[in-house]
Amino acid sequence: MIGQAVNRVDGPLKATGRATYAYEHWEAGQPLYGFIVGATIGKGRITRIDTEDAERAPGVQLVMTYLTTPEQGPRDESIPFEYWRAQPVLTGPDIHYYGEPVALVVAETLEEARSAADLVEVEYRAGRGRFDFGEFEDVYIPKTVNAGLPTDTAVGDFDAGFAGAEVKVDQQYTTPYEFSLPIEPNACMAEPRGEDLVIYVSCQITDAARDSVASTLRMAPERVHILAPFVGGGFGSKLGIHSETILAAFAARTLRRPVKVAMTRQQVFQLVGMRPTSSQRVRLGAGRDGRLSAIAHDVTMHTNPDIEYAEQTAATTRSLYAAPHRLTSHRLTALDLPRGTDVRAPGEAPGMLTVESAMDELADALRMDPVELRIRNEPTVDPERDVPYSDRHLVDCLREGARRFGWENRPATPASVRDGQWLIGYGMSAAIRGHFQGPTAVRVRLETDGTAVIQTDMTDIGTGTYTILTQVGAEGLGLPLERVRIELGRSDHPTSWGSGGSWGATNSCTAVHRACMTLREKLLDTVRDDARSPLHGLDPANAVFSDGNVGTDGASEALGEIVARNHPEGVEAEGRTLFMGDDPNYSAYSINTYGATFAEVGVDADTAEIRLRRMLGVYSVGRVFNPKTARSQLIGGMIWGVGAALEEEAVVDPRSGAFVNRDFAGYLVPVHADIPDVDVVVLEGYDDKANVLGAKGLGEVGICGSGASVANAVFNATGVRVRDFPVTIEKLLPGLPPMDA
Amino acid sequence: MMSASETAVGRSQGEMAPLSAITLNVNDQVRQLQVDPRTSLLDALREHLRLSGTKKGCDHGQCGACTVLINGRRVNSCLTLAVMHENDAIVTIEGLGDPGHLHPMQRAFVERDGFQCGYCTPGQICSAVGMLAEVEAGWPSHVTADVATPGIALTDNEIRERMSGNICRCAAYPNIVAAIRGSAEGGPG
Q1: How high is the ipTM of this complex?
Q2: Where is the Aldehyde oxidase/xanthine dehydrogenase a/b hammerhead domain (chain A) (predicted)?
């Protein structure tokens, strides 16, 4: 079953509108509706807040402000990850960023709540905020960057290595604020049940959501029950919970009724956090043969002053190419903007966009094929950690991709090939992403009817968890797929690390596999000692589990019969996956996924309109659980790369700190018309150092480098290098060759 | 600090918004409801009729997740008021098929993996059904090369252009195009 292109098991529910997301649960009856009122200044203080008119408005049940919110638990920085910490909201009169919640209005209907929200009168004393990243040069050095990675690294003597290089690239790039923007806006319904709270919330990690709600509301964690059976996309923005959840929970406890709150699309841009903007200096020094002697990647980013977030933008540069002399660094500038947060492929996405652009610049300076340049700098060991790679196939990806794409047809000289009005260019990029492993537990229970139930608090945010856990469970117990049932997204189930960081599939599948193996042993122990079983006394070493039966030496018995006879309540086992820090393979090896993307663009010679014509990604990700869902995730990642290269950018109003383009008309994401044929090839693989199943995560490697392949294709088409992402018409047009007469 | 119950609860004695009694025909069922005249068709479907298959992604006509079919034409249900649709035949994703009896377009989306998180999916599917009818009726699009000749070839570019009002942030676009093409050609997807 593992490795088969099975259709999504939850597909029919999703395709018929029967999958229920956070805002859509009616089990508790008619809820009340909450609407968030946001600050209309970016920095300052509330001097007066008058809720009287709002409270008297039709249908209104409650107006919460900082004056009326119950006492909240503080953010506890001793908890290692932000997403498990308390998330207090409406904490006081001070305004820290534009749009920050200043009130919640709860009413009988959504229309009443929204209308009454306009009646909350707030007066402010505006302070002088720091909003414009380009304006400030004061930086500080964070203790670590995201995921606890080192802030700076140095190997060899970069200055000497760079000074002595025959060919150099030294360029400054900038990347914009970007948002995750799943199509389901952040939403929560909170239902009081006795002393407990049942929370339906769109989140990626239910364990984090439970801890966060409990500590903010000063409740015992076991009194909070998170339910997230379906999540309408996350991409990092739902790793933690947000203000709508805390506000719904407080309102529900106060009113003793279910309350639901969803952010408007505009509020999502203000209240959830974004990928920080960055300024990145990339220096590459090489010999005329293309071999790198020196690599430096220095990154400066914005952070919120109160909740530090340092994206690990230079981290992948540490493992990608060989070079004896190396430097990486991360610096932060505090701005009065919403906090930075994880957006799909944090660090890798903006970091590889620039480094893989710089590699293209180096190839151009050397007059060398960009594929060949990368092959020449293939390391034998991880150059900064000095440990072997577990299963590195970057060169295979590069070669296979070049062959399939027809890379030999690439215009050797930029701006040299035209197809009618279109300037044609090819571009490519390498991809690498670290593979992570986190503590995860699942429970597998075999029922007396021979069906299996798999329970974990793991989520399926569109990644295919329901499907691949079904496949691994079916293979583990020798059951047909339809006899495996998956229960996800309940914090009362065994605890996982949730969905994020591309670790969800391997963490949970490995745990399911282990639980199934334990369950097999239990069943075999049972029948060996059971005189009523046809397998009594036979050698379990030869046992085969298939089609709902276990058999050995010509005898066979249905699993359901064994369970019914010996375990009338069903029989279960737990399986676990270790934290990577406790798994010696993760310190002894550099465990990563790899890829190569290739893109062809056309650039309108007169208007500089950029059209992606085709795209190919070749990936090495170990073993694949399901080629169909894997391909979908990789395509999705590659298209995110297209968005980063050509479209996505949130713009701050330097006067107010507001994001001016806070909707889908102003913040462009790829749509159907932007995306042509996208092809994906996954190389056969098995990484025996990653886990017992040989699989690695692939939710984010697709976005790594893919944007650079598009930007590099634009350069190849036009001869114009845009280093201020995204590459848009107004930046490209001035450098285009003169218009035809 | 005062508690919320002391200051803010139970003071909702203001005048109720006048409700409108309306009759909607949704998925061939006549449904009578009392709605605030400000209620969008989308909120009437989701919050009053509890047909939550129709999704709210932006409430602004920019994402397409709320697409339904009204008298056979696709409409962003967030941009129209419920009270405007008394005599209309409304079809939502629930009306196209159910998990045991999938509409051919729903089956094609499942077969081609035309979604991941599933949240934009009902809108994509309703939009695709409406879009094929528009092509069938000969409505040209921005990318139709020849608007004079009857009969529009359903190229991939036609599908992409006509489906661009439906955003998929999981970016299942190539699979969605394949599903629509498969369904239009009468295959299993």
Answers
A1: 0.97
A2: 16-128
Task: Name the pTM for this structure.
Answer: 0.97
> Which of A356, A350, A422, A351 has its CA nearest to residue A176?
A350
Instruction: Indicate whether B55 and B121 sit together in one domain.
Output: no
- Number of A/B CB contacts below 8 angstroms equals 246
Q: How many domains does chain B have?
A: 2
CB spacing of B13 vs A56 below 8 angstroms: yes
Could you tell me how many residues make up chain B?
189
Rounded distance between C-alpha atoms, residue B39 and residue B60, angstroms: 14
Cα–Cα distance between A572 and A518 in angstroms, integer? 9
* Spatial separation of the C-alpha atoms in residues A167 and B151, rounded to whole Å: 58
Contacts within 8 Å (CB) and 24+ apart, A125-128: A125/A44, A125/A45, A125/A47, A126/A41, A126/A43, A126/A44, A127/A43, A127/A44, A127/A45, A128/A43
Provide the 8-state DSSP code for B113: T
Active site residue A700: yes
Secondary structure class of B95 (helix, strand, coil) = helix
Q: From CA A716, how far away is CA A728, in angstroms rounded?
A: 15
Omega within 30 of 0 (cis) for the link into A276: no
Q: Which of B62, B79, B96 is the last residue of a domain?
A: B96
Q: Which residues of chain A have pLDDT under 70?
A: 739-741
**Interatomic CA distance for residues A351 and A357, integer angstroms:** 10
Q: Residues B124, B91: one domain?
A: no
Whether B12 maps to a domain, the answer reads no
Tell me how many degrees the CA angle A283-A288-A290 measures, rounded to the nearest 5.
Answer: 60
* Residue B136, domain member (yes or no): yes
Looking up residue B136, the CATH number of its domain turns out to be 1.10.150.120
Q: Are residues B121 and B61 in the same domain?
A: no
Cα of B114 to nearest chain A Cα, Å: 8
- Give yes or no for residue B186 having a pLDDT over 90: no
Q: Is B18 on the interface with A (CB under 8 A)?
A: no
- Token pair 């088409």 is at which residue? A717
A80-116: pLDDT as tens digits: 999 999 999 999 999 999 999 999 999 999 999 999 9
- The answer, for B88 touching chain A at a CB cutoff of 8 Å, is no
Range of the domain at B80: 20-96
To which residue do tokens 């200051």 refer?
B7
d(CA A294, CA A644): 27
Q: Going from the N-terminus, what domains does chain A have, and what CATH number goes with each?
A: 11-128+180-271 (3.30.365.10), 340-433+586-735 (3.30.365.10), 440-577 (3.30.365.10)
| Unique residue bearing structure tokens 């953010």 | A75
B88 and B116 in a common domain:
no
